[in-house]
Amino acid sequence: DNESMLIDAGNNDDGHLICDYIKSLGITKIDYLVGTHPHEDHIGGLDNVIKTFEIGNIYMPKKSAATKTFEDVVTSIENKNLSIIAPKVGQNYEIGNAEFKIISPIKEDYGSNLNNYSVGIILSYGENKFIFTGVFSLHENKASAW
User: Fold this and answer.
1) What pLDDT, on a 0 to 100 scale, did the predictor assign at position 136?
2) Which residues contact residue 139 at a Cβ distance below 8 angstroms, ignoring those fewer than 6 apart?
3) Are strands 98-104 and 128-132 parallel, antiparallel or unpaired?
4) Contact partners, residue 87, CB within 8 Å, separation at least 6
5) Which long-range contacts (CB under 8 A, 24 or more apart) does 92-95 make?
6) Is 3:96 a contact under the CB 8 Å cutoff?
7) Spatial CA neighbour of 135 closest among 41, 65, 48, 63
8) End-to-end distance of the chain based on CA atoms, in angstroms?
């Protein structure tokens, strides 16, 4: 139903490739943009995506990183007067004929392991379910709520 979601955008050098691919699909708006956690190989291209497309909502965990990559993403968000929504476990959203549910991160503090802050999502479309985890430990996050 002409709605879209992008989960992560690869490394810094992948930004233009990601944008070109999305454009080739005829997409002009990203309704849900998710940065699973603040490692460069996950959020590196998000600044390009934010600059290039109309953005609906941006979801990222409440965890920052003292890196240029993270700063670039935050700057691109601020430059478009957007804001980051911290996902909460159990929240449900509709996207076209599908829906998705946030399954992680369950707690706010996992120490220094940024992977464990990853936003986890279950997307349901008809009888099909897809899990998108970024990178996190099921044991650490106890993502059994799904």
Assistant:
1) 52
2) none
3) unpaired
4) 34, 59, 61, 102, 119
5) 93/32, 95/3, 95/4, 95/5, 95/31, 95/32, 95/123
6) yes
7) 41
8) 25
Q: 12 is written with which tokens?
A: 């810094």
CB 111 within 8 A of CB 63: no
pLDDT tens per residue across span 86-123: 999 999 999 999 999 999 998 888 888 888 889 999 99
Beta bridge partners of 94: 99
Separation CA 43–CA 139 (nearest Å): 24
Neighbours of 76 (CB within 10 A): 19
Kindly report the pTM of this predicted structure. 0.89
**Lookup: tokens for 52:** 């290039």
Q: Which two tokens stand for residue 6?
A: 């992008």
Q: Which two tokens stand for residue 17?
A: 């490739």
